[in-house]
């Protein structure tokens, strides 16, 4: 009986040794599968970055080529052009002998380009002597105005107005109606009058 027990013990020991010597199967499919999975994540990240870049570029292109021009020629821009043309027309055609310099300065602030140069010369050589000598006083009021052309950097506005003029020769005043085509140029984001043509 002693011999049999020893034999059983030896057999058990051999079985235990064989079990511990067998390696465990790989859990994640081995190093090749791990490498492929890492490469897949890398390319997915590259594709994502490229997609974001393309989307950002498309958004920028749409803003520059569609949204900005539309916003610069839409209803808000039209209203700004009409207001600039109306305010400028009133400033150009309204003056009093008691405040000529201030009146002319207010008008000049709303003009640009060659028309500004013309206005300076016209008021100095013609308006100032006549207004001073004959006490000419004029007051203009805009009745209606509408955009004729509108571009991001230039516009044309048709202005309808009434004008009342008083002088020494005509103290009761004279009333007239007229219309002018006001050309505007955008300078540093502000509409300024660059042309003024009676219609």
Automatic annotation (TrEMBL):
<feature type="region of interest" description="Disordered">
    <location>
        <begin position="1"/>
        <end position="29"/>
    </location>
</feature>
<feature type="transmembrane region" description="Helical">
    <location>
        <begin position="42"/>
        <end position="64"/>
    </location>
</feature>
<dbReference type="GO" id="GO:0016020">
    <property type="term" value="C:membrane"/>
</dbReference>
<keyword id="KW-0812">Transmembrane</keyword>
<keyword id="KW-0472">Membrane</keyword>
<feature type="compositionally biased region" description="Acidic residues">
    <location>
        <begin position="1"/>
        <end position="17"/>
    </location>
</feature>
<protein>
    <submittedName>
        <fullName>Twin-arginine translocation pathway signal</fullName>
    </submittedName>
</protein>
<keyword id="KW-1133">Transmembrane helix</keyword>
């Amino acid at each position: 009986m002693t011999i049999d027990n020893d034999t059983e013990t030896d057999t058990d020991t051999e079985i235990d040794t064989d079990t511990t010597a067998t390696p465990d199967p790989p859990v994640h499919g081995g190093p090749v599968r791990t490498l492929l999975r890492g490469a897949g994540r890398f390319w997915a990240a590259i594709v994502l970055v490229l997609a974001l870049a393309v989307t950002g570029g498309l958004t920028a292109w749409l803003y520059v080529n569609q949204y900005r021009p539309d916003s610069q020629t839409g209803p808000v821009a039209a209203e700004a052009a009409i207001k600039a043309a109306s305010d400028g027309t009133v400033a150009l055609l309204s003056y009093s002998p008691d405040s000529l310099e201030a009146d002319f300065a207010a008008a000049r602030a709303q003009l640009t380009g060659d028309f500004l140069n013309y206005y300076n010369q016209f008021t100095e050589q013609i308006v100032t002597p006549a207004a001073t000598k004959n006490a000419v006083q004029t007051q203009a009021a805009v009745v209606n105005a509408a955009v004729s052309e509108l571009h991001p950097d230039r516009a044309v506005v048709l202005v309808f107005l009434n004008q009342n003029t008083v002088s020494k020769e005509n103290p009761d005043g004279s009333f007239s109606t007229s219309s002018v085509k006001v050309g505007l140029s955008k300078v540093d984001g502000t509409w300024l009058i660059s042309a003024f043509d009676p219609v």
